[in-house]
Amino acid sequence: GVEVGPQPQGVVRADTLDKMRKIVKHGLDFVQLFNEGKEFLPCTIEVFKIMEKVDYPRNKNDEVIAIIHPKLQDQDWQPLNNGDPLFLTLDGEVIAYKGDCTVYPTFINEAAYYEKKQAFVKTVKMKLSAKHIRSSV
């Protein structure tokens, strides 16, 4: 499956639709070339591995007590370092990220995840290597 986004529910954006079409076309092109016996050389790609879903800060009644900090909003896939602002309480207090490594948050403040108690997802950047492949046909 391919999910291209984010975009608000009920909204169709031409640029997002174009990205989806391109990635599906690349996938179909790969399948066709593979089936024709083309050899693909070894490669390394950078990926983001999901490590943890992070909820909004809540009180003892399970009520949200802080919102996404303005400096984090719209910063999907950007590095988040120890001490960087995460949340802003309704009283104006900044809640900072406390971590021992740089993470790359994504799905930040997405409406679809609010009811799932997910403010964002922490990912880490890593490299994956693939050996050469060729169809055996």
From TrEMBL:
Signal peptide boundaries: none
Residue ranges constituting the AstE/AspA barrel-sandwich hybrid domain according to the UniProt record: 44-123
GO CC field: cytosol
UniProt cross-references to InterPro entries, sorted A to Z: AspA/AstE_fam, Aste_AspA_hybrid_dom
GO molecular function terms attached to this record: hydrolase activity, acting on carbon-nitrogen (but not peptide) bonds, in linear amides
Pfam families: AstE_AspA_hybrid
Annotated PANTHER family: ASPARTOACYLASE
Full protein name: ACY2 Aspartoacylase
Taxonomic source organism: Oceanodroma tethys
Gene: Aspa_0
